Amino acid sequence: MIYFVFILAAAVVVVSAVYLNQFGDVISKKSSLSGAAVGTFLIAGATSLPELTTSLTAVYIDNPDIAVGNMLGSNVFNLLILASMDIIYRRQRLFQKVNNKENIPSASFGLFFLLIIILSLWMPGSIAIFGVGIEMIVIVLLYIFSMKFLSGGESEKEEEGQTKDYSLKAAVIGFIIASVIVFISGSALSVSGDRMAEASGLDASFVGSFLIAASTSLPELVAVYAAFRLANYNMAIGSILGSNLFNIQLLALTDLLYREGAILASVQASHIFIACLGVVMTLIMIFLLIRPDSMRSHWRYAAPSLLMTLIYFVASYVLF
Q: Distance from the CA of 311 to the CA of which of 29, 46, 76, 276 falls in 20 to 30 A?
């Protein structure tokens, strides 16, 4: 029954996430918002709903390692999604067709947030204000500040892809309905994935960082693939980088609801390795966004993404 629920939930997530991107694509084309802005805020928020549900459930059952591991693990898995798509579609040269001025700030703030988390995990103890770690308060304030840079880009014409002709009002309503379906099916996916992982007897931090993180990141995977099919590359990258920023804010919310003190002071030290993995992969992502368009060989172009993929699987095996 657990396997059946997992497969059924995965199928529903796939279908709803495809519609989520179709509606998001219409919103980006028929409103003043650019594809990167739609990806960074609308789609990123909707596809991060399963992570929120899973982490809040983990806090409720007093398992902070799954809560923190799920968020950090989802971030590195999201970057793996982009790297994988870049390898598969290497002839299209994804990172040379996007508006770097809109995506580089998102990646940079995500990198900075991860460095703050690493510092907090490395230092013994944590200063808590009303039970919330001071590092989370700093991250939330910086995120609010960052929105000025992340939403201020000018709207530009995206490459026209095959998309259905919905009105803006219909697209907004459809986007909301698809978001609710992603939340429900993604939550079922997370819970069934947690039960499957629990039966294996693996460590809670590994389960949260890789197994559950991969299952809750399925909406992001479908979102990126659908954005590729629509040739809306800004939305593809924006949805991933935006989800990573949003996940860190959800970690702050998780800390607020965790009543045993600062949540980062209550988890295993192994989470530092997940966060460091995120830093390395984000640095490679920034390099992909800023490097000049001078690669003739498709495989030479895809080398950084191949390196990201290799690092992810090596780190997974080592932590396993």
A: 46
